[in-house]
Design a protein that fits this description.
The chain crosses the membrane at residues 32-49. The protein has helices at 2-29, 34-50, 62-74, 79-110, 128-140, 152-160, 171-179, 226-239, 250-260, 276-279, 290-298, 319-332, 385-389, 403-410, 416-420, 428-440, 447-456, 464-476; strands at residues 114-120, 144-149, 164-167, 180-185, 201-204, 242-247, 267-269, 303-306, 335-338, 357-359, 377-380, 395-399, 424-425. It has 478 residues and is of the alpha/beta class. Helix 1 (2-29) packs parallel to helix 4 (79-110) and helix 3 (62-74) runs antiparallel to helix 4 (79-110).
């Protein structure tokens, strides 16, 4: 029964994809008017949505869950059948996703676009450059701005700001993606409904200037295997739809053009919209958040932010070295806020209970640029947070005990010595000595921070989002 059901579902997905293809050709040959094409396309989309085929990779299928449960039930007795069921489950899922995505791709390229409609979304909620731009666009009121949200907290934030918003994976969410003229993303095409925005002009505001090689430059995507070739080709189908990619400097432009294989003049040096808030002088006096209240009370000069990059097979922290850092904090009456990556849940620092150590988790405080003004210095390794923090004109300390292996597996766009001005440390002892020297001498901004600021930020006026918005308005009218 399972085999028959899986076969029927797979056949249905392929058949529907082919039928949609034939329907598109028929619509084109018949010269159907734009409004009627929209109505027909919406009917197809609604059918997809109601049959749960439009969910793609984002949602779980109840049917597949039933197969999985049955597979688990027979695993102890029928191992061969279990393997077969597992294979059927994977094939069914892949076929269903392929069929639904193919249908969405067709719809995305035939549905007439609404020139006044801009859609926004972000994997980390209402944050990053997407939030910076929609706030300007909302005040201007020239276009219809719609944010597609994932969580209740995101919905509340949008409602408080009076912005138009709908659930990302709702029928309206897909419809607005298909109709949008401009689509704003910060982490990837799944910030919105992936394939559904293929027909839109994509504005990629990205989430940081990379030191680590990313996207097409990443070692994980390089190679001649069929799988990697197919993956590169599929990704290039979307990166070709990027029309504007704001960056902070010529160095950034070169890297981004290479990483995303962009057309000339797509990456533009106007500053990164997400960093405007780093330059703003915060005047918050009260908040319901206990940690933020504590940081406000302490003041930035007394708090050091430690934000290491996550990597697969993350290195274990040298706790003796961290103990020595805490001793230094006690000596100078300062504190450290530790920001671990959500996937680094086993880091022993998270279990280190000391009044000088404050936990600053990414899951709770997602957009770090909202909070950089609370810190007077930064410890990091390969993270783009260093480039953002340089706008604070405060000291940055680089701690990279695994530089050799990281460089080999991840790849860097420039040597670590160039990036850090040769001011980095491979062990806690050297790091602590450097911090203590600056604190004892009253140094608030070290040389490597000054050079990062000069090299990576051509604009330091807090108007990057506005410049990007003006470019988007011109593009929208074309």
């Amino acid at each position: 029964m399972v085999f028959i059901s899986a076969t029927v579902l797979g056949y249905f997905a392929i058949t529907f994809g082919y039928s949609a293809f034939c329907a598109v050709n028929a619509l084109k040959k018949a010269n159907i008017s734009a409004p009627l094409a929209s109505i027909i396309s919406l009917a197809i989309l609604r059918f997809l949505y109601l049959t749960d085929m439009v969910s793609g990779l984002q949602l779980q299928y109840q049917y597949l869950q039933q197969i999985s449960a049955y597979s688990h039930f027979v695993s102890s007795t029928y191992s061969k059948r279990n393997k077969m069921l597992s294979l059927i489950k994977k094939l069914t899922h892949s076929t269903t996703v392929a069929g639904s995505q193919f249908a969405l791709l067709l719809l995305a390229n035939i549905i007439p676009k609404d020139k006044s409609l801009w859609v926004y979304g972000c994997l980390r909620g209402y944050s990053e450059g997407c939030a910076a731009i929609i706030e300007i666009a909302h005040k201007d009121g020239t276009h219809r701005n719609v944010w597609l949200y994932r969580s209740e907290s995101e919905r509340v934030a949008l409602q408080q700001r009076g912005m138009s918003h709908y659930p990302l994976h709702s029928l309206r969410g897909y419809w607005y993606c298909l109709r949008a003229n401009l689509a704003f993303i910060a982490y990837g095409f799944n910030d919105l409904n992936g394939t559904a925005i293929h027909g839109a002009k994509i504005i990629n505001v990205w989430h940081g200037t990379p030191l680590k090689k990313i996207y097409f430059d990443s070692p994980q995507l390089l190679g001649s295997s069929i799988r990697k070739r197919v993956k590169r080709h599929l990704q290039s189908c979307f990166t070709r739809r990027i029309y504007i990619f704001p960056v902070s400097s010529e160095i950034s432009r070169t890297r981004i053009e290479s990483a995303f294989r962009l057309k000339p003049k797509v990456a533009v040096v106007v500053g990164e919209p997400r960093t405007d808030k780093v330059l703003l002088k915060a005047n918050a006096n009260h908040t319901e958040d206990l940690l933020i209240n504590e940081l406000l009370k302490l003041g930035p000069d007394r708090v050091l932010l430690y934000a290491p990059t996550w990597r697969a097979g993350s290195i274990q922290s040298d706790m003796q070295g961290f103990h020595d850092l805490v001793s230094l904090l006690e000596k100078h009456d300062k504190y450290v806020a530790f920001r671990a990556h959500p996937l680094d849940g086993n880091n022993p620092i998270l279990k280190f209970n000391h009044r000088r150590v404050l936990l600053f988790p990414q899951n709770t405080y997602q957009d770090v640029n909202d909070y950089l003004w609370l810190f007077g210095a930064l410890i990091t390794d390969y993270s783009s947070i260093a480039i953002d923090f340089s706008l604070r004109s405060r000291s940055i300390y680089f701690f990279a005990p695994d530089i050799d292996s990281y460089h080999e597996t991840q790849g860097l766009y420039e040597s670590y010595d160039v990036f850090t001005d040769s001011s980095w440390h491979k062990d806690w002892h050297g790091l602590i000595q450097s911090i203590e020297k600056n604190w004892s001498n009253g140094v608030t901004q070290n040389n490597c921070s000054k050079k990062l600021l000069k090299r990576y930020h051509e604009f330091q006026d807090g108007q990057s989002a506005l410049r990007t918005y003006e470019l988007c308005k011109k593009l929208s009218n074309k």
